[in-house]
Amino acid sequence: MPKITIDEQEIEFAAGIPVLQAALDAGLDIPHYCYHPGLTVVASCRLCLMEMKMPHPKSGELGWAPKLFPSCQTPARDGMVVRFNSETVVTGRERCMEYFLLNHPLDCPVCDQAGECSLQDYSYKFGKPESRMVDPKLVMPKKDIGPQTLLYSDRCVMCTRCVRFTKEVSGTSELCITNRGTNSEIDVFPGKPLDNPIQGNVVDLCPVGALLDKDFLFKQRVWFLQSAPSICPGCSAGCAIRVDANDDIVYRLKPRFNPGVNDWWMCDEGRFGWKYALSDERITTPRLRRGSSTKTPKWEDVSEILQYRFSQHVDEHGSGGMVVVLSPMMSCEEAWLLLSFMLKVGPNVTAVIGPILSVGEDQAFPAGSTGDETKFIIRSEKAPNRRGLEMIIDQAGCETLSFDEFVESVGDGEVSAAWIVGGYPEKTWVPKALEKAVGKLELLVAQDLFETKLTAAAAVTLPACAFTERAGCFVNHAGLIQPFESAVAPPNGCHRDGQYLYELAGYQGLYTPDRVRELMAATMSQFADVREAAPAPVHLH
Amino acid sequence: MADYEPVLLKNISLEGSTDLKVYESAGGYAAARKALKMTPDEVTEIVKEANLRGRGGAGFPAGVKWGFLPKDREVTYLCVNADESEPPTFSNRVLMEKDPHQLIEGTIIAAFATQAQKAFIYMRVEFHEPFHVMQNAIDQAYAAGYLGKNIFGSGFELDVFIHRGAGAYVCGEETGLIESLEGKRGCPRIKPPFPAVEGLFHKPTVVNNVETLCNVPHIIERGAAWFKSIGAEGSEGPKLFCASGPVNRPGCFEGPMTITCRELIEGDGYGRGMRSGKEVKAVLPGGISMGVLTADELNMVMDFDDPRNFGLLGLGTAAAVIIDQQQDIRKVLANITRFYSHESCGQCTQCREGTSWMDKIATRIADGVGRTEDLDLIVDVTKNMGMMPGLSICGLSDGAAFPIRTIVQKFRGEFEAYIAEQPPTSTLRVLSTFN
Ligand SMILES: Cc1cc2nc3c(=O)[nH]c(=O)nc-3n(C[C@H](O)[C@H](O)[C@H](O)COP(=O)(O)O)c2cc1C
Ligand code: SF4
Ligand code: SF4
Ligand code: FES
């Protein structure tokens, strides 16, 4: 690997990257605003300054060139010698930091970004506490630029990341710069708000509190938030995300760097589409039904009841008419545990993959791009784990039916017992034909987030948890197995699916995805080593 | 300089100087015919040999610039920089308004040398008259077969278009010009890639100033040795100078780059001295961006090198603004800071914020609310901007730093005297109303 010397330290770097990236990769905190590895380099903020050794134009002797260079625009070359710690560099960026605050309103106490703002962080670390400007500040407007987003231009540092994002990634170009010089402002064109399916990323990209998410506005101080790494269940892309919560309440989702999958981005559907988890219509307790009377069993009895119901059913009818409908919203671990249980009680059980909503075609950004030009794709398949279920069912080798065939079989009276898992964001997922035929089942267990005609008819109803409350792994459209952690506790009274399925499958103690994957790995080696996506450099903001 | 024989301005007093026939009867288009019989490389060599340094401000040798074009290129564009946006500068205007065919001929030869088949004249929008004159001349040249296909039977073809700017100083900077020509905001590009490698529409591009190109026909016609016999080493060839302010004859003049600033003001062929009762206080000799000279520094030679000895950035556009003793230096400064603050494109932090900050300070000083420490502060701000220290994408901020810094440094005593005369409470009172 090629090597570069940064601040007297020899560092290996991946060929083809700028010096700034090499420094960030090596863990150095180099302040920068306009640079972002997912966008073109404009080298305009002039904060990432460095000095560089160059051959003297006359003597040819290697020495420090008498000027500063933007490290984001300078390609790292083997044998190069640069420094960020000289007095010239330190003063240069101290001055630059002074400029960013010249006209800034210093309204951190009411700014959502406070606590995760690189203007705050850099000012503490690289700036000076006082401004030398005694003249009045320029006052810039606050603007409503789209259905989800606000722009407080008085906080803007004009890094143009947001403009480049809409030009280069979303390909929608809603954002532009208006006016010139210090009066420059980010703006939208009249009548053309910032409104595209991945616009929320501009808020993440904004290094300061200029671009704000209306959804999160004034909801939380970020230092109260705890983050859990997760995978967005909105489609089969498997975007790595972070679930930010405080006191078991989720406040926002943010994308995590995931090279080759979602890179730095996520879509708005995923970002804002998780609110169903907060609904108070959620099922939170198990429920038993005999005829028209229902009762709520104790959680510790649930396992035994289910065992008993299914064994009794098999004794009476055999397991030939038994079906388990696994939901593509389930994690691999949950699906595997449930299938293991079903196979144990009824070796002839048929496995079915629940319905998968498909919306249009895969949506590439920028629109119409192909191959390397494509920066982001929203998948048409609106479920995170079809591939995972397929792997598990394949390995189990059991009979399978498609969901449509299953619905038909229920109608034809060929299915005697079924465990049907939902867990979809919409309550409307149950097809009419199934609603009508469900009475023909001798035994029905329905596991879901919300009440449906199935839960109403089920002998046993079990609550399902939202992905923010569960842990496990999903297999994305390309076969990549990615783990996710739970960010919050399930609603009061509710147990996690993984926990009760774990007990049901005959294991004792606390469910952890790792423990289950170890068990799964005995027959499916892919699950032996499921790891987090590569982390982004810590100092990349 | 009585014995100086005008070259660039030799036709301007001819009756109907803008007409093709008049231009041809004065020997016009002979150089283009001659050049198109040579090879492009031969033409480039002659221009290199003549050491024709760019007249747009940076003084880069035109032939060398042409030589940077990649050998294997397929498309080349030539941009004629007619933005002439530097304050007090109007020599390109005279050339285009009075002798448009000289520029067309220079453009044909430069396009041939660089193998460009499209040339764009990027002209500032305020040039109404030059636009019409140039467009008429281009139409005439097309009609005569001097533009279009198979020029002079050589097989070479060239189309020339005029593109009118929208009023931004920074669009005179070559990559700002290219962006603007592509229909975008005139924000200068980062380099590399340099325009010669990737310029207009991502194709190899040469940008040359109007006056630079007007020199080309004469070099081809009369040879590099003749060209180098004018002026002095490093600053060869004829040059246009402008003088504005209280001189007896303000205007655009031609001469060799051996004249001093004093000659430009006083010489018979130039400004012919100060108007009665006026005395020189300061001169901004190279447009405003190069910096200021005091009345004691008028022996500066108007060439590419001497300005540095006086703390200036360079020769610039060789257009001098003469400021007389009655002028308030604070207003001169505020006028200059206002210009750069208004014209910074706003990409680079130091230029965007620095120019506006300096304008706030200078305006406050001019309003009689200055502080002595403001003088150090403003100098400090000028040192923290520009391409030379590596803090900007284009040279606009160097051009802002030099005049502001040199004015404050060279006239510091005057500023201090004004500040000392301010009523003692004014500073405090006005500053406190800001907060
Ligand atoms: C802010 C700025 C403004 C400029 N304006 C002009 C201009 O109006 N006309 C011009 O010819 N060159 C201008 N230049 C210089 C051009 O960038 C470029 O160097 C020149 O057009 C090259 O032509 P030349 O080599 O023939 O001089 C400007 C440069 C800067 C930094
Ligand atoms: S709004 Fe944010 S991302 Fe956009 S230019 Fe301003 S600081 Fe940068
Ligand atoms: S130096 Fe000033 S004018 Fe030039 S690119 Fe930077 S901000 Fe724009
Ligand atoms: S100039 Fe390098 S990060 Fe902005």
What's the structural blueprint in terms of helices and strands?
The complex is a heterodimer of chains A (541) and B (435).
Chain A: E1 3-6, E2 9-12, H1 19-25, E3 49-55, E4 62-64, E5 69-70, E6 81-83, H2 87-102, H3 118-126, E7 142-144, E8 149-152, H4 161-169, E9 175-178, E10 185-188, H5 201-205, E11 211-213, E12 226-231, E13 240-246, E14 249-255, H6 268-272, E15 287-290, E16 293-295, H7 299-317, E17 322-326, H8 332-345, E18 350-353, E19 363-365, E20 376-378, H9 386-396, E21 399-401, H10 403-411, E22 417-421, H11 432-437, E23 443-448, H12 453-457, E24 460-463, E25 472-475, E26 481-484, H13 497-504, H14 513-521
Chain B: H1 20-25, H2 30-35, H3 40-50, H4 62-67, E1 77-82, H5 91-98, H6 100-114, E2 118-123, H7 128-143, E3 159-164, H8 174-181, E4 205-209, H9 210-228, E5 231-232, E6 235-236, E7 238-244, E8 251-256, H10 261-266, E9 280-284, E10 293-294, H11 306-309, E11 319-324, H12 329-343, H13 349-366, H14 372-383, H15 396-410, H16 412-421, H17 426-433
Parallel strand pairs in B: 1-2, 1-4, 2-3, 7-11
Antiparallel strand pairs in B: 5-6, 7-8, 9-10, 9-11
Helix pairs in contact in B: 3-6, 3-9, 5-6, 5-7, 6-9, 12-13, 12-15, 13-14, 14-15
The complex binds flavin mononucleotide, iron/sulfur cluster (2 copies) and FE2/S2 (inorganic) cluster (FES).
